[in-house]
Automatic annotation (TrEMBL):
Residues 18-78 form the HTH tetR-type domain. It comes from the Bacteria. The lineage of its organism: Bacteria, Bacillati, Actinomycetota, Actinomycetes, Mycobacteriales. InterPro entries: Homeodomain-like_sf, HTH-type_TetR-like_transc_reg, HTH_TetR. This is Transcriptional regulator, TetR family. Signal peptide: none annotated. GO terms for molecular function: DNA-binding transcription factor activity; transcription cis-regulatory region binding. It comes from Corynebacterium spheniscorum. Residues 41-60 bind DNA.
């Protein structure tokens, strides 16, 4: 039908996703992480999904908006967790920091494509993504301030926990296989290892129930 808006029928699904929007993000994540932002067109993304280019614009107004959505997906859950941990009066600084590192690492390991690589692309520094920069700086400050509450603001180690979490980007592949599925009952071994390392590098003791406390907080956020 001429002038139809939205997503046309497909013979069979080409991408993973419960909705057309999720399928677009999956296709874009693959293309952006394998060939870059500048060399990826909205036509290529639409073709990878099996929809018309016009239908893609029904879900996203631009390629930039798709990129921003993927960037934010790497940081928004951790920002929510940080807020929840900050409100928990019975959670001390070592547990908060451990949970932050474990959750951020788990997030970076839970996607088919290594979307953490996107922030390393030159285009990510563009003023167009100022909202993302602000959110990332906010999260970095939370990591840093939490570490500082353990060892002091003048200690040069306070930046390390954030970068230990991000090291998961370099520790995973980009083959379209999820390294660690999201689970309500367990955390990936890599997340536990890096979270432990974050406290060890600060000389802080490891909380005894750190895994279960983190999972409990994450479950509460999912149910909220």
């Amino acid at each position: 039908m001429a002038g139809a808006v939205g997503r046309p029928r497909k013979n069979s699904p080409r991408r993973r996703g419960r909705t057309a929007r999720e399928e677009i993000l999956d296709a874009a994540a693959e293309l952006f992480t394998t060939q870059g932002f500048a060399t990826t067109s909205t036509h290529q993304i639409a073709d990878a999904v099996g929809i018309r280019q016009a239908s893609l614009y029904y879900h996203f107004p631009s390629k930039t908006e798709i990129f921003l959505t993927l960037l934010n997906s790497t940081i928004e859950p951790s920002t929510r967790l940080a807020a929840a941990l900050g409100e928990a009066e019975d959670t001390d600084a070592p547990q908060r920091l451990w949970s932050l590192v474990a959750a951020e690492t788990s997030l970076l390991l839970s996607t088919r494509w290594n979307v953490g690589r996107l922030y390393q692309l030159p285009v990510a520094a563009s003023p167009e993504f100022s909202d993302y920069h602000a959110h990332r700086e906010e999260l970095f400050s939370i990591f840093r301030d939490t570490a500082a509450s353990i060892v002091g603001a003048e200690d040069p180690r306070i930046d390390l926990p954030f970068y230990l979490a991000l090291s998961a980007i370099e520790m995973r592949d980009n083959t379209g296989v999820i390294p660690a599925e999201v689970s309500a009952t367990s955390l990936p071994d890599t997340a536990i290892m890096l979270a432990d390392a974050a406290l060890t590098v600060l000389g802080a003791p490891l909380p005894a129930d750190r895994v279960e406390k983190t999972l409990t907080t994450l479950r509460s956020l999912e149910e909220a």
